[in-house]
Amino acid sequence: MELTHIEHIGIAVKNLDDSIKYYENVLGLKCYAVEEVKDQKVKTAFFMIGQTKIELLESTEPDGPVGKFIEKKGEGIHHIAFAASNLKDTLKEVEAKGVQLIDKEPRRGAEGLNIAFLHPKSTYGVLTELCEKPAKSDE
Ligand code: CMX
Questions:
Q1: pLDDT tens digits, residue range 99-120?
Q2: What share of the chain in percent tops pLDDT 90?
Q3: Which mutation among 114, 119, 127 tests ligand 1's pocket best, with the greatest number of atoms within 8 A of CB?
Q4: Which of 24, 55, 74, 78 shows the smallest number of beta carbons within 10 Å?
Q5: Residue 137 binned pLDDT confidence (cut-offs 50, 70, 90)
Q6: 97 close to ligand 1 (CB < 6 Angstrom)
Q7: Which domains does the chain carry?
Q8: Is the pLDDT of residue 79 over 70?
Q9: Is the CB of 42 within 6 Å of ligand 1?
Q10: Within 13 Å and on the Cβ side, how many CA atoms surround 109?
Q11: From ligand 1's centre to the CA of 54, what distance in Å?
């Protein structure tokens, strides 16, 4: 397996517009995209810093993964995403090493990336995402 860098850090927020103001006006980052990911019940906002993105996540439904997370733990870091160079094989390798997968197969996530989550119960409490840019032919 080869992980190349931290692709993004996902942060759960109650209000996307308010939190965007903090990242722009205080930290001086620029929000370059806002996107709703319907099947994940979230609205996301993206900022780039170096090679890494910050992804703010506002839940669109109380029963979505981010809605439940905020209800239990409050706002804060929700997941960390690593860029993987061969996601399908990486998932097989991780599963063979005894880690519980949430997604057995890559699926399409925000920004058109292929993504898969590992369960926080087998990653020392950190919801972990692996992601890969789709091949040009799959876009
Ligand atoms: N980080 C760490 N632990 C988490 C967590 C997170 N983000 N989300 C849930 N948990 C923990 C809970 O605290 C709980 O622990 P305890 O049993 O000790 O109380 C346990 O996991 C189960 O939590 P739950 O609230 O009952 O939620 P579910 O089991 O229904 O779902 C999870 C948990 C991780 C499987 C689910 O949130 C999931 O599938 N996540 C992946 C998809 C996702 O997060 N999508 C949103 C982002 C999409 C995007 O980036 O575009």
A1: 999 999 999 998 889 999 999 9
A2: 89
A3: 127
A4: 74
A5: low
A6: no
A7: 3-138 (3.10.180.10)
A8: yes
A9: yes
A10: 21
A11: 19
- Give the count of alpha carbons within 13 A of 97, CB side only: 11
Band the pLDDT of 139: cuts 50, 70, 90. low
The one-letter amino acid at 29: L
pLDDT bracket for residue 1 (50, 70, 90): confident
Quick one: tokens of 136?
Answer: 């040009």
Q: Cβ neighbours of residue 76 under 8 Å, at least 6 residues apart?
A: 11, 12
Cβ of residue 130 lying under 6 Å from some atom of ligand 1: no
Q: Is the pLDDT of residue 56 over 80?
A: yes
Q: What are residue 31's DSSP bridge partners?
A: 47
Cα separations (Å) of 126 from 22, 25, 51? 24, 29, 21
HSE (CB half, 13 Å, CA atoms) of 62? 2
